[in-house]
Amino acid sequence: PQGESGARHQLQGLAGVIMLAWGTVLVIWATLIIASVDPKIYERCELAKKLQKAGLDGYRGYQIGDWLCMAHYESGFDTSFVDHNPDGSSEYGIFQLNSAWWCDNGVTPTQNLCHMDCHDLLNRHILDDILCAKRVVSAPGSMKAWDSWTRHCSGHDLSEWLKGCEIYVKENPRKLES
């Protein structure tokens, strides 16, 4: 009888250790998941400075205002935003880069022209998003690849997007031509 209670006590102790170990594994797993996604909704001026630092001001004739306007209408500056299209493709990240053309989501048949996993576009580290967006505007069609840019940004005064941001931007060469 005393041997039984001793064995029961050891089993209870072992069960507690196992539960503690599983709890630790779950906490580590959750931390890794959060760290790997690590999303961010950028503030307008914060994003403007990041885009400028990455060389987007004047890139292929587009100013920071073009990029801010497009990103606002595409994702609301949210790096974790994913949108699903009727054709089965999906759009990822702050610039809503399409899985059929620019990245590989493991589901959609893709050209993967940016040579990257779509899920890498969902974190706060947007240099890879910017490099891919540069490829998009370097392709024929350029900024028109984003319908939201054509509808909301093209031909509009985009200076409001930079108000209060305290950054120096290059003069828009397209304005000088008109």
Describe this structure in words.
This protein has 178 residues and is mostly helical. It has helices at 2-37, 44-53, 64-75, 127-138, 147-152, 173-177, and strands spanning 82-84, 90-92, 97-98. The radius of gyration is 24 Å and the shape is elongated. 46% of the residues lie in helices and 4% in strands. It folds into two domains: 1-37; 44-177, Lysozyme (Orthogonal Bundle). The model is unreliable at 29-35 (pLDDT under 50). The termini are far apart. The chain has six helices and three strands. It has a three-stranded antiparallel sheet with strand order 1-2-3. It comes from Ictidomys tridecemlineatus (Thirteen-lined ground squirrel). One of its GO terms (molecular function) is lysozyme activity. Pfam families: Lys (PF00062).
